[in-house]
Automatic annotation (TrEMBL):
InterPro entries noted in UniProt: Biliverdin_Rdtase_A, Biliverdin_Rdtase_cat, Gfo/Idh/MocA-like_OxRdtase_N, Gfo/Idh/MocA_Oxidoreductases, NAD(P)-bd_dom_sf
MF terms in GO: biliverdin reductase [NAD(P)H] activity; nucleotide binding; zinc ion binding
Protein name: Biliverdin reductase A
Catalytic activity, EC: 1.3.1.24
Domain Biliverdin reductase catalytic, first and last residues per copy: 128-237
Amino acid sequence: MLGTVVVGIGTAGRVRIRDLLSPLSSSASEKMTVKGFVSRRSLGEEQGVKQISLEEALNREDIEVAIVSTENTSHEDQIRRFLEAGKHVCVEYPMALSYTAAVDLWDLAQQKGKVLHEEHIELLTADFKQLKKDVAGKNIEEGTLHFTGGPLQGGFGFPSFSGIARLTWLVELFGELTVKTASLVEEKENRYMKLTAQLLTQDQRPLTWIEERGPGLSRAKNINFRFDTCTMEQLPIVPREPVGLFMQDLNLFAQKLLGQVPPAQLQAERRRILHCLELADRIQQLSQESA
Ligand SMILES: NC(=O)C1=CN([C@@H]2O[C@H](COP(=O)(O)OP(=O)(O)OC[C@H]3O[C@@H](n4cnc5c(N)ncnc54)[C@H](O)[C@@H]3O)[C@@H](O)[C@H]2O)C=CC1
Ligand SMILES: C=CC1=C(C)/C(=C/c2[nH]c(/C=C3N=C(/C=C4\NC(=O)C(C)=C4C=C)C(C)=C\3CCC(=O)O)c(CCC(=O)O)c2C)NC1=O
């Protein structure tokens, strides 16, 4: 059994503990067992699981795996510590708030011979899986992905990083991209922000990504994809799948821990993750230059 610690008890961390306590039967995650959790607050217990200190989590030999579910600004440091301590790491996206930090972390994981896995539940949703099928084989001429949501608490980093899931959608659908322009409108007093990035596909087709957050904005993604043969103006409407998103991700991570994921798939994932973080970095740079 792979002893596991969960770090950070927010929405994601609680779901991680829940899933570890009742893994999907006959799945790789049955090989994981939760040994404790780490929090900066004194919580004592969570779902019957005991709080332990970060030091204990790093030093205990029966803990081989860490799931990092804290706010984004602390991911890099926590991943580094757990990898240095010889643990495998699963981190909620984004793994870091700069491209160079992410490259360093992947190098460290390789050097230590440990699995580094970045969760991407946005790729596991039923609507995305259908969208990917619908887009396959079509030629994009121009497209927009407009995300709206409520304001984020502090610690989530620049919006191209906290919104990496949208960038990851675009890259999964249309291939590697370049950034043409980017700008950020921020009204701190209103807790409002809007990031607009102009991207280009390898065929020089324009894609616009808008990430907009403010009070009263509900969590939604609007698309407008113009292809040579048709236009898509809404996400496919499909029922939710029976297995939860974080549970699907846990299974994928567990399969990596058990060596069941082909190297080519691991490499492709790593390349996509680094590409998206490089785009996020460039978007941040251009936004700050244009400000
Ligand atoms: N909630 C979701 O559905 C998803 C979340 N994620 C990722 O999971 C991670 C955690 O997100 P959530 O659980 O939703 O956030 P959250 O805000 O519910 O939880 C974050 C945890 O960090 C603690 N925290 C935040 N700032 C702190 C500070 N400055 N000092 C001490 N403690 C602090 C909070 O108390 C909480 O325990 C993020 O990286 C996010 O991008 C990724 C995909 C989906
Ligand atoms: C209800 C309040 C609610 C909160 C506070 C919330 C937080 C939240 N959801 C996220 C992603 C996400 N959250 C979800 C889904 C959910 N996540 C949930 O907490 C719930 C209940 C669902 C519904 C099934 C998905 C699928 C993602 C991946 C990114 C995406 O596709 O939008 C993220 C990561 C950053 C981001 O991509 O925006 C945060 C911080 N999501 C919420 O819905």
